[in-house]
Amino acid sequence: MLQFMLLSLLFFQVVHIAGVPLQTPIIPMYACSSVDFYSPLLGGGSMLDNGEPLNVIISALSTPEVLTEDGIINFAKAIGFSEECLDIHLGAPQSANLGDGNGWVNQTIELRQYYGNSEIGTCLETLIGGNHFRVFDQNGPDAPSGALFLAVSQEEDLEEAHTVIPDGYDIGRDKLVKAAIGTTHFDGVTYFTTARNLTGLLAAGSIGVNHGIATDGITTLLTVTIVDDFQ
Ligand SMILES: *[C@@H]1O[C@H](CO)[C@@H](O)[C@H](O)[C@H]1NC(C)=O
Ligand SMILES: *[C@@H]1O[C@H](CO)[C@@H](O)[C@H](O)[C@H]1NC(C)=O
């Protein structure tokens, strides 16, 4: 209810500022979001998927193109990730409830760190371990921010059955964020990314977290802007 009121207020303000009649629909809402994201906790959701912390959020204030499936894949490639190794899926997909009215939904996509510039590189990651993340889209009717919630972790190699290393959630997050900050580019697209740490979304510690791995409770908010470089 509170959320609905906030949303209505937001809607009214957008309409008011734009000076257009209230009846004018503004669609799609996420294409002109004025919030970074909505807290899943306000909508009965959770900052844990089936046991992994959602420890990075790509802000809805990022360039809208980044928040699409193709867009996040290209950005991921710019910071050293690729699509999963030859579609080999190790482990079940995870699901998350972002409090947006969609309930528990499966990840949109899973990306792994790649070593070198080929699909074989991603296979190598599958064999020797590395950083990986799953993506969840906050796009349900109750909280359609368009923000992307990421569950990032650093894994052991295949022999260790892809278990997350000790501190693997914090380490995975920090590695991804470090690779993302500042200017990056892939396939002709240049990104400028800023980061801000948020507390109070995730509880620090290991309650509800897979393998009892404790985390520091920090979620890093990334704002990714596509930069035009007039070359
Ligand atoms: C999630 O994926 C699993 C495995 O592919 C499938 O069985 C399940 O129905 C999916 N759940 C949703 C909510 O789509
Ligand atoms: C966020 O917190 C991590 C862990 O404490 C730290 O390494 C990182 O520098 C912080 N990042 C920002 C942008 O404050």
Automatic annotation (TrEMBL):
Record's protein name: Uncharacterized protein
Alphabetical UniProt keywords: Signal
Top-level taxon of origin: Eukaryota
Signal peptide: 1-17
